[in-house]
Amino acid sequence: MSSRLEISDLRIAYGASTVVMIEHLVVEPGTLAGVIGANGAGKSTLVNGVANWSRAEPRIAGTIRLDGEDITSLSPEEHVRRGLQLVPEGRGVFMGLTVEENLTAVAGPSGETGRKAYAVDDVYELFPRLRERRSNFAGSLSGGERQMLAVGRALRMAPKFLLLDEPSIGLAPRLVVTMLQTIRTLVEGGLTVLLVEQNVNAAMEVTDVLHLLERGRVVASGTVAEMRNDPRIIEAYLGASHG
Ligand code: ATP
Fold first, then answer.
1. How far is CA 175 from each of CA 138, 144, 145, 170, 191, rounded to the nearest angstrom?
2. 57 conformational bin, left if phi > 0, alpha if psi -120 to 50, beta if neither
3. 148-198: pLDDT as tens digits
4. 94 C-alpha to ligand 1 centroid (Å)
5. Average pLDDT across the chain, whole number
6. Which residues contact residue 38 at a Cβ distance below 8 angstroms, ignoring those fewer than 6 apart?
7. 1 alpha carbon to ligand 1 midpoint, in Å?
């Protein structure tokens, strides 16, 4: 089920302004890679661009490979069919449907794919809160519950690679930990994940590798242990007490 993503010479531009420039970035199978960086660094543009999902229709040049296949110009639907699933920031649920309707409205591909298709009950196992809210409209959920539902919907489609854009945004600190631990559990189960996370300390608890994005470029990459000691990370994100 594990899957490898390889990004080469990626340039993403809105009009004349190039906001993502990545020479080479690999997410190894069965790992959890984090993308961190300041507001406007290009994190969302990167993950949306990988999934070829954006209303703003940026120009995308370069090569994105999923398990060796060039998927750069494929539609979002074709990505989903191949098991690449994006959970965009603050989106991905139907507000006018109940939690359960949101989950039953989507399903994985038919036929044998070798990927784990999550039943609705599997999603409830992962997020017990959603079971309690199964009859509530998604529009009435808290921000955190909505994030859980968005991840749950993505899992229903039997992904092998998940792109998660700030799944912990708006969550109470306790729920941030729960959400990220749940994502870690999914990775232990074989899923490969590229996670955008503003909360660097929280990201360090669960990721294998971190990439620091500044003005669209990867300026530092490494294991959590390496990144914890990187002066740029300490200065900008961890504060003097971690030095
Ligand atoms: P945040 O943490 O605030 O979500 P981010 O790191 O995800 O930020 P992006 O949203 O990817 O950053 O934005 C990167 C740059 O691209 C920013 O300068 C932003 O203003 C610009 N940008 C984003 N969307 C568009 C758009 N639709 N049209 C033009 N410029 C855009």
1. 18, 7, 10, 9, 21
2. left
3. 999 999 999 999 999 999 998 888 888 888 899 999 999 999 999 999 998
4. 24
5. 91
6. 214, 236
7. 32
For the chain, the structural domain boundaries read 5-238
In this prediction the pTM is 0.93
Q: How many CB atoms lie within 10 A of CB 94?
A: 15
Is 46's pLDDT higher than 70?
yes
Give per-residue burial for 144-168: e unless 16+ CB within 10 Å, then b: bbbbbbbbbbbbbbbbbbbbbbbbb
Q: Which CATH architecture has domain 5-238?
A: 3-Layer(aba) Sandwich (3.40)
Q: Helix H segments across 157-214?
A: 173-188, 200-206
> CB within 8 A of 116, min separation 6: which ones?
1, 158, 189, 190
93-133 tens-digit pLDDT: 999 999 999 999 988 777 777 888 899 999 999 999 999 99
- Ligand 1 residue neighbourhood (C-beta within 6 Å): 14, 19, 37, 39-45, 56
Q: Which residues contact 225 (CB under 8 A, 6 or more apart)?
A: none
State residue 242's pLDDT score: 45
Ligand 1 centroid to 19 CA: how many Å? 8
Counting ligand 1 atoms within 8 A of each CB, the residue from 14, 197, 218 with the most, and so the one to mutate, is 14
47 vs 217: CA distance, rounded Å: 13
